[in-house]
Amino acid sequence: MKNEFSNSERAQVLAQALPYIRRYNGKVIVVKYGGNAMINEELKQQVMEDIVLLHLIGVRVVLVHGGGPEINELMQKLGKKAEFVDGLRVTDKETVDIVQMVLAGKVNKTLVNLLEMKGGNAMGISGMDGRLIEAEPKNEKLGFVGKIKRVNIAPVTDLLEKDYIPVISTVGCDKKGNTYNINGDTAAACIAGALGAERLIMMTDIAGVLTDKNDPSTLIPNLTVSEAKKLYENGVISGGMIPKVDCCIEAIERGVEKVIIMDGCVPHSILMELLTNEGAGTMVTRD
After folding, report:
1. Could you give all domains of the chain from N- to C-terminal order, each with its CATH number?
2. Which of 2, 4, 27, 121 sits 20 to 30 Å CA-CA off 108?
């Protein structure tokens, strides 16, 4: 198959990226990764390549990941039925052990291995390592679902200083030795806030915030916190988008400059957002 671009066109694309490379060099970008972009193997390879590319041009990338489908798969194999209340997984003692096994084990180490294979320098940790995520029960009826009490960010900053890409699985702990299942979006918002990140990129399975949820052409490219709150009131932000936008607002209130909600199923969406003037998804900013 013939190359789509000539060498001179490729060189021009790289030259046009230079101002954006300058802007983000040395800055911290937190990427929340999960959903369909994680299931599709080809997309997963592309996301890892994009993260390594950003790392190699001097962006300090932190990868926070979920793994809901993999948890469901193992639970099914073990004959255990997944149960949800208000979108959160009911997590008894057996389920939290499965969550820890899948997130801190299989998923985390698979992503670390992929990043290393692409030429990155990655280190996988969980929210339990160095008590990164200290938690308490969110609601008795949810069991071991955690509400974040405190983020001890030192393990992440230590890895960044040593030029690693930290890959973080979202399980937390308390001082009594209990393990908690932590919502990935919430964990990413709190970690990004603790790092004072330049941006938090939330990879989802939709284009961003839409005025008509069935029409991708109604994408809202830019949104302030107060504008987002008005969209709650008139029902534009509803259903599963509410907790995602809540996490965007929380991240900004914790000190993150900008938060992007984007479709992780679009190839190279991270690079489009950071290294071009096109952007991707909905950008949420402070007023």
Report:
1. 25-285 (3.40.1160.10)
2. 27
